[in-house]
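We modelled the chain as a single entity of 430 amino acids. Its sequence is:
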Amino acid sequence: MSAADLARLQFAGTISIHWLFVILTMGLVPLVAIMHTRAAFTRDPAKRAVRERMTRFWGQLYVINYAVGIVTGLVMEFQFGLSWSGLSKFAGHVFGMPLALETLIAFFAESTFLGMWIFGWGRLRRGVHVTLIWLVALTAYASAYWIMVANGFMQHPVGYEVRDGVAYLTDFGALLTNPNALTALAHVTLAALTTGGVLVMGISFYHIVRGTKETDLFRGSVRLALLVGTPAAGFVATVGEMQISLIRENQPMKMAALEKGDAAQVQAELVREYGPGDYVFAHDWLRLSMESMEIIGYAISSITIIAVILLWKGRLWRWRPFAYVMIATIPLPFVASVGGWFLREMGRQPWLVYGELKVEDALSHVSRTSLAVSCAAFITIFAALAVTNWILIARFARRGPDATQLGATEPLADDVPTGGADEEQPVPAF
């Protein structure tokens, strides 16, 4: 493999794994925020206790995913300088701003709000505590917006001019409202909500079929997941189709791959426009990615609609085969999401910034050996982090609400009841 191929493999491997964390973070945090809001403002003590346990249980799974995922995000930022210094040289004046804002929001604002929410149980006023989790959700989606702005510029550069081989920002508004970024953000948002909803339903049905005593908690979780996930799954394919017109207009070779068009003709047109080069890339992979997204998207949409119908007269809780289907569905949104990134990124080859900067011109002056070592090391570490994340999530999900540690506080020595230090302590309320 060439140095460019190794650098691309490294980035593709790490971004694909990192994206698994991102899509779940974006999908879970709105559900946790809704759960917390309902718990905080429920007057009935029994219902409030159930909804608080629900918030803490799902909130802990979210925190695990966020904590491990933030490590992978840090490495992603470094790769732009390690392997793709040409991108910074050419587009740093444009590309650097949204990337820096994403870093500030994700690694500072979002992390700060989340830390305050985690340690605020039993210490903050109800309204303040609820506001914090909504701020976490807001900053998560703000972070996604800036990433899509940066990626949208790479897909279809707007609001810039090139002077002496360097791109300079000339229209900030055009950069922020790039249709390639906004439509993709809407698609990612719906995909994330679908992913979060499927995970919550799958884990909930796992406990329901095992005969859990936490019936109200997990049935309530399923209802909320259906409320959010059903419309999201229904519209995710529709919004995805909205991007076809942008692809047809801006990236004709990707369109030729998806529609099995005349790649040779498009190749000749691109040679005339941009000069000699091989503009045909991985057509089979692009079609496979597109088809996998479509099949999974329509399947999940159908399953959630069936679940809503089965809610009538409680048949959803009695039909065990459907519960097993929902458990088996958990991995599918992640597969579709990775396929979406493959389609988006591979389809613009050989460009890093479409029409302006090719991959080979953006590559840093790094030896093939160094790239081979870093590629193997990064992908191995990322894979280990992903496995660790899912083992932790599966372990705490399987143990159920009784094993939840989020919101639990250690009593002070003077507060230990007379019954002994081993006596179980109640978890503090808001």
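As a brief sanity check on the tokenised model: The chain has one domain: 3-251+282-406. The beta strands are 160-163, 166-169, 351-353, 357-358.
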